[in-house]
Amino acid sequence: MKRLQTLLGDYPLTSALKRGEIASDLVALDFADYRPINTGFKPMVREGRFDVSEMAIITYLIAKAHHKPMVLLPAVVMGRFQHEYALYNRAKGKLTPADLEGKRIGVRSFTTTTAAWVRGILANDYGVDLDVIHWITFEEPHVAEFVDTSERAPAGKKIVDMLLAGELDAVLGERSDDSRLATLFAEPVAEARAWYDRNGIVPVNHMVVVAEEFAKEYPDQVREVFRMLKASKAKGAAPDKGAIDFCPFGVEALRRPLGAIIRYAAQQGLIPRAYAVDELFDDTTRRLEI
């Protein structure tokens, strides 16, 4: 039995797997503890610390552009609508997507997946020119080779505090119940559902990758990891009939969501070109289907 160093967050989809309820004769998963889970992405990208790892899809796309030895599994562990993750300060007056050009907008990192989805929606659905926005960031990218040309916020500053202080006009990638803040999209839940109805796309945030060397040497074990993830989803996160599946599995189920985020990433200069969806997988993972 092969023991695999594994990074996976705590979700309904992963709960059965992490409780040891999914048995295997081929692999044993040794779970690393990183909280929040995204703090483990940098060690995976920069050091190859895990055999199996949760990974933000934008981080994976940028890592691929810089030839990092990872392979994507067609398995989503976290997806969500994104329209709630754009905020402005009510005290500064009403702000809409049409008002953003020329403004100072904060994002935790320019390469965060949620920010990439929201920017893509703003550009493609609302006609916002992203190039004339002044981007303020707070963290470096997970992929060290990515050249971030945004302005870095002063050390010690916090993104929501800067928004409340009037030092930022809006922030992307943040959600808050603070009554002083409002969502950039007036009716975010309804607008997200309308966006889904138009596009038929679930915005995927976190997927699963495996180390390239592991994928090449142990294809049977890679298939087993996928089987275990599917079994765990069936126990804890399978959607009701007719409900939206925010964690789709299989290349075909993911073709449209991945195509959309690839297109957005290329438009935003996060990757040098728009990859074909099949390029994200290898000969083993491309054939993994539900």
Topology:
Elements: E1 2-7, H1 12-18, E2 27-31, H2 41-47, E3 52-56, H3 57-65, E4 70-79, E5 86-89, E6 104-107, H4 113-126, E7 134-137, E8 151-152, H5 159-164, E9 170-172, E10 181-183, H6 188-199, E11 204-211, H7 212-217, H8 219-236, H9 251-267
Parallel strand pairs: 1-2, 1-3, 6-7, 6-9, 7-8
Antiparallel strand pairs: 3-11, 4-11, 5-9, 5-10
Helix pairs in contact: 1-8, 4-9
In words, what does this structure look like?
This protein has two domains: 2-79 and 203-287, 3-Layer(aba) Sandwich (D-Maltodextrin-Binding Protein, domain 2), CATH 3.40.190.10; 86-198, 3-Layer(aba) Sandwich (D-Maltodextrin-Binding Protein, domain 2). The chain has a six-stranded mixed β-sheet. The chain has a five-stranded mixed β-sheet with strand order 2-1-3-11-4, with helices on both faces. With 290 residues, it is an alpha/beta fold. Helices cover 33% and strands 19% of the residues. Strand 6, helix 4 (113-126) and strand 7 form a beta-alpha-beta unit. The two termini are 24 Å apart.
